[in-house]
Structure formats: C-alpha cells, structure tokens
Amino acid sequence: MKKLSSMPESPSAPPAQRNWWVYVVLILVCVVNFLPYLRVVMAGFMDGATSSSATPIWFFSPSLEAFDYLIFEKGIMKNFFNSVVVSLASTFFSVTIGMFCAYALARYDFPGRDDVSFWVLTNRMMPPVAVLIPIFVTFQTAGLLDTLLGLIILYTAMQLPFVVWMLTGYFRDIPRRYEESAMVDGDTWFAAFRKVTLPIMAPSITATAIFVMILSWNEFAFATFLTSNQAKTMPPAIMAYSIGADIKWNVLGAAVVLITAPLILFVLLLQRQLISGLSQGVVRK
Amino acid sequence: MSISEHTTTAHALTFGQRGFLSRFGPSNRTIFPWVLMAPTLIILFAIGIYPFLYSLYIAGHNVILSKPYIPQHFVGLYQYQAVVQDPEFWHALRKTLLFTVQAVFIEFWLGLGLALLFQRQLQGVAFMRLFILIPMILPPLVTALVWRYMFYPGAGLMTYYVGAVTRALGLGEIPFLSDPVIAFQTLVFVDVWEWTPFMFLMLSAGLASIPRQPYEAAEIDGAGSWRVFWTITMPLLRPAILIAVIIRTMDAFRTYELIVIMTRGGPGNATTTLNVFLTKTGLEFFDASKAAALSLIMMMIIIVMSFVFIRVFRSKTEVAE
C-alpha cells in the first residue's frame, strides 16, 4: 500500500496510471466471483443434453425447456409467491420491532444493559438444527406447521438479534442532542424519534432491512422441515425439484435463475443505499 | 416512512400525555427502555428461550424419535457423557474448528485487502462492487449447488479446466470431492469464495468511518505506510473487525447447506463437522436426546468463543483509546 493512498483527495495519492495492477486484481476478483454463477445461469437456458455433456459447451441455442418444466409442470411460482410474502413480512416485523430495542440499548444506560445486549446475540448462536425438534413440536401443537404465518413468526424472531445488533451501533452514532432539541421545542418523545432520528437512520435501516430480507429469502433448514406443501418456499422447492436421483443441471440452472433474479435486481437497485447505510455506522463510538 | 406511520397511532395511545401508561413513558428512564425492548424480548423468549429449555429437558431424558413407546425417564447427565465419550464428537469438533479457523482467517485477510483496494477511490470501479458481492447475495443453498456443478466430474468447469492443466503437468485429475483431505479444503475454498465479500463489505464500512485526522498527523510525522496501517488503520478498525469476525465465526461454525449438499460429511467422515454430526444424530438416527445434548454443548462452545472475542477486543480497544 502506498503511503496514505487510502485517503480520498490525498495529495500523496499515487497517480492513476500507476494503479494498473489494482485494476487487474479487481477484474480477476470479479471474474472469479461472477463466473461460477454465470455458468449455472447459462445451464438454465440449455436443454438437458447440452447441460450435462462431457465437455463444457459455451455456445448453444437457448432453450426454455427447464423453465417450462419448473413453472408449468412443478408450479414453482407458488413457492416464489410464498417466499416473497414470508421475506417481506418478516423483514417488516423484525426491523420495526428490533428498531425500538436497539434504540433503548443505545440511548439508555440502565442496569443490565450489556447483559441484555449479549443475551440477544446468543439467540443467534443456537444451530438451527438444534432447535428444530422443539420448534417442530410447538408448531404442530399451535397448528403453524406448513403455514406462511408460522414461517413469518419464526423468521422475525431469527432476524431480530441481527437487526438489534446492527441498529444499536447506528443509533449510537447519532448525537443525542438532535432529539433533545426537538423535544425541547415541545415534541413528544415519539414525535422527536419519528421526525429527527428516523430520517437520519433511514439509510442504515434500509441497509439492515436489505440484509435481513436476503437472509429470510435464503433460509433453508427451517423451511425444509417446517413446510411440506402449502407454505413451501423457494429454497426447499429448488432442492426438491433439481436434486433427485440424478441431477438435471439445466433444471438446477433455471431454478437458480428464479431464486436469484429478485435478489440481484434488488441489490442492483439499492446498491447505493446498502453501501452508504453500512458505512454510516458499523463502527461504534 | 411506512414503518413510522404504522406505529404512530399505537404510540399515541400508549404514551399519551395523561394516560395511566404514561408513568412508564419516556420520562421514566429506568422503565421506559424495558418498554421499548419488551416486544423483542418477548419474541426472543418465545422462539429462543422456550426451545432452549425444551432442548434442556430432552437432553436430560431418553427420547428416541423413532421409538416413542420407550418410557421416558430422567437420565441426568448421561446424554452429555455419551456425547463426550463418542470419538466421532471429537473428530467433528476438530474438523469444525479447523474449518472455522481456516475459513475466517483467509476471509478476513482477503476481505481486508479488497476493502483497502477500494479505499483508493479509483475511477470506474464502483460497479465492480456488485460483482464482488454476488457470492454473498446468493443463497447458501445456491452456492452449494453452483459449486457442485463446477466440480461435477466431466463438464464441471473446475474439473474440466483445472483437470486439463494438472493432466498436462502429469499430476492426473484432482479428486476435488472424493479425496478426504482435498474435499475438506475444497469446502474451505467454497466458504471463502462465498463469504469474503461479507468481510469486504463490513470492513469497507469500518474503513469509511475512520476519521482523516490521525492520517494527517501521521503524514506530518513522516510515518511509513506499513506503520500507518498497523498503528492507525488496524486499531481504529477494531470495532468493525470485532463484529465482522464474530458474526462470521458463529456462522462458519454451523455451516450446513454447503457441506450437506457438496459432500454430506464424506468421503467417510472427512468433512463431518459438528452440525453435520448433529443432523445425523437427530434426524437420521433419531436420537433426539443425544442430539439435544450435543446442540447444547455446541452452543456453549460458541458462546465461550464470542465472549472471549468480545473481551479481548474490548480491552484492546480501551488500551488503544
């Protein structure tokens, strides 16, 4: 690393033409990170024989055989819809609920605060497989097995520790005097929170929400064991449709396209918010 | 924002100026934080603590899911003893620690390197971020499927092209997933591929929030770049490193989809980590009690690790300040 090169507009930053090796490294990283995914997406548009040939085929006439199979024969759009509902709802609830907890942990100095904070985090430490059996039995008793509501409740609880930990850091970075001055002006606590704190927090909350939504959309272990037919989401559906006795690579590719298209689109649209929100305050003061 | 609109009414009702509930309102600095935290704590209690207690109960009894007719009775610490005396447990623990340490270590340094490269504010690389983030955005399930395709014997890109190179060198094919030692390293490689972007993202955010003044001071003092990195960047980055490493360690410790889909713990038991061992015990052998005891032991290990991390990092941060 050149001296102080990490500083924007630093006078000692090396001139651009000396940075060619950085571009080479970055392009290489991009290729390594993107090529495997691209290859599987390509497989999704192949016919069965092309996707499993003995040598890699790069040029082929596209076929929608696999999509046809998944959408019309397997009805995967229903799983897609389930995934959308579950991830949107659980993101909404976990962020709304976790936000207030994070605020309390960041703003109030009460006895046992560090313990609560650590206890919240320990909820993320249990391996999902470990709590599977108790949760299965509870869901069975409550009639929540194979329902979207059950998954929404579960995912909300699963994402809460992450939301609380991320947002606590962000809240700490906002000077308290902003809210206090609003409250001096006669606003109630909640009005000050809504008019002053929330707008400042919007990028961080958005970034956290994107993270949480991705995690919910991708969740596999619980979705596999707690749903069977009605509420099955995309990950277990894809597992069921593409990995059988022998793997149909083009079906797998098409399934990967369907499950990742919304994610890629979403992150592409919100990339700026994601980066700026995260950089606002991962670091505690 | 819709979030705030949704809750405004509820709060107006709850924390009205004159209502009975207002005594728990914002002016009460002892009780109000608990009011704010209540929904979170209740949900975590219902979905976190209750299953935990249930696990504790099962681990103290003899529950075999496939034999519900066996009368259940209290067995004390027998199940924990059964786990600790099982050589398979120690094997799985060693594999898990090896996997976690290797993966997190490599991810951290690669992620930090990438984050530092992006700090240079080069022209026209912003769009590259998305490409770099792709592995992290993909569902772990998809990552595992993608790499199964890459390592698929024959036309998988890795098998085919790397195989072509190694054949030319006279080394023959590399058994990416069928040799015990290589299969384990293959899984580490895929985990690094998948999660380095996460480290990159978290550490980039950390770097962005470091103030400029220390760097300016160092420049005046004429400190070299290596020294600046170790005495300014690393200490100030510590909080970001802490949270990134803790989250990643916890998740690497319980990697599931990747291993189950790519190797199923094999060949033999070469890639059987604790989580795979746990799944086998609970869902293949239906020994719910032993599985519960095992999961509680796993959780203790993770909690102790996190606690040590937090302690070590906190004390160092305080010294640095």
UniProtKB/TrEMBL annotation, chain A:
Alphabetic keyword roster: Cell membrane, Membrane, Transmembrane, Transmembrane helix, Transport
Pfam families named among the record's database cross-references: BPD_transp_1
SUPFAM superfamilies to which the protein is assigned, alphabetical: MetI-like
CDD domains per UniProt: TM_PBP2
First-listed, main subcellular location of the protein, grouped into a coarse class: membrane
Ranges for domain ABC transmembrane type-1: 80-270
PANTHER family: ABC TRANSPORTER PERMEASE PROTEIN (PTHR32243:SF52), MALTOSE TRANSPORT SYSTEM PERMEASE-RELATED (PTHR32243)
Assigned protein family: Belongs to the binding-protein-dependent transport system permease family.
Protein's recorded name: Carbohydrate ABC transporter permease
Source species taxonomy: Bacteria, Pseudomonadati, Pseudomonadota, Alphaproteobacteria, Hyphomicrobiales
Automatic annotation (TrEMBL), chain B:
Recorded family membership: Belongs to the binding-protein-dependent transport system permease family.
Organism: Rhizobium herbae
Membrane topology reported for the UniProt record: Multi-pass membrane protein
Keyword terms: Cell membrane, Membrane, Transmembrane, Transmembrane helix, Transport
Chief location: membrane
Transmembrane segments: 31-53, 97-118, 130-150, 182-207, 228-247, 291-313
Stored PANTHER family: BLR7065 PROTEIN, INTEGRAL MEMBRANE SUGAR TRANSPORT PROTEIN
Pfam families reported in the protein's UniProt record: BPD_transp_1
Compartments (UniProt record): Cell membrane
Protein name as catalogued: Sugar ABC transporter permease
Domain ABC transmembrane type-1 residue range list: 93-309
